[in-house]
Amino acid sequence: MGFARGAVALKVDSEPYDFRARVRESFGRQAAMRTIGAELTRVEQGTVEIELPFDAKLTQQHGLLHAGIISAALDAAGTYAAYSVIDPDASLLTIEFKVNLLSPGRGERFLFRGEVTKPGTTIIVSDGRAYAVKPDGPAKLIASMSGTMMVVRGREGIEG
């Protein structure tokens, strides 16, 4: 299934549905994102952004945002970008990802952007970028990710 950036709704059996509401509702059920204080700030077809304020509880021993937190937020951003382009009867599970940590996670806020690279009916690939945001300068790229998601249909316990 292809997608057009900026589209308002996917068409399923000639009936449009609100992918933004679906992404927001699913994100609201993500206990992990809630636990770290992440919020969904942008939902477009094929692109999702998640923001996270700095919190010392999420750092490693040097006071930098922990790689596990960066990875989790990038995985969520990439997976929700993919979620925005699938049919409403389908869901997703991440089957693989690779993270490159490019710069220390130091900032007041962090932005995690996921974008669909290759949509598909069975496998979807997305890429993500993580940025540290400081009030006194431009956002700094701190990590990149490439992830692969499996489209799931009809599996008990894994619904839309």
Walk me through this protein's architecture.
The protein is of the alpha+beta class and 160 residues long. 21% of the residues lie in helices and 40% in strands. Strands 3-4-6-7-8-5 form a six-stranded antiparallel β-sheet. A two-stranded antiparallel sheet has the order 1-2. The radius of gyration is 16 Å and the shape is elongated.
Structure summary:
With 160 residues, the protein is α+β, with helices and mostly antiparallel strands. The chain has helices at residues 19-28, 31-36, 67-83, and strands at 10-12, 15-17, 39-44, 47-53, 91-101, 109-118, 123-133, 140-152.
Which short descriptors sum up this protein?
alpha+beta, 3 helices, 8 strands
Mind sketching the topology for me?
Blueprint: E1 10-12, E2 15-17, H1 19-28, H2 31-36, E3 39-44, E4 47-53, H3 67-83, E5 91-101, E6 109-118, E7 123-133, E8 140-152
Antiparallel strand pairs: 1-2, 3-4, 4-6, 5-8, 6-7, 7-8
- Secondary-structure element string: EEHHEEHEEEE
**Distance between the ends:** 17 Å
Our estimate of the beta-strand percent is 35-45%
Low confidence ranges? 1-9
Mean pLDDT: 91
Order the strands across the largest sheet as they lie in space: 3-4-6-7-8-5
Q: Kindly name the structural category.
A: alpha+beta
Largest sheet: 6 strands, antiparallel
Radius of gyration: 16 Å
- Number of helical elements: 3
Instruction: Please tally the β strands and state the result.
Output: 8
Form type: elongated
Fraction of residues in H or I helices: 10-25%
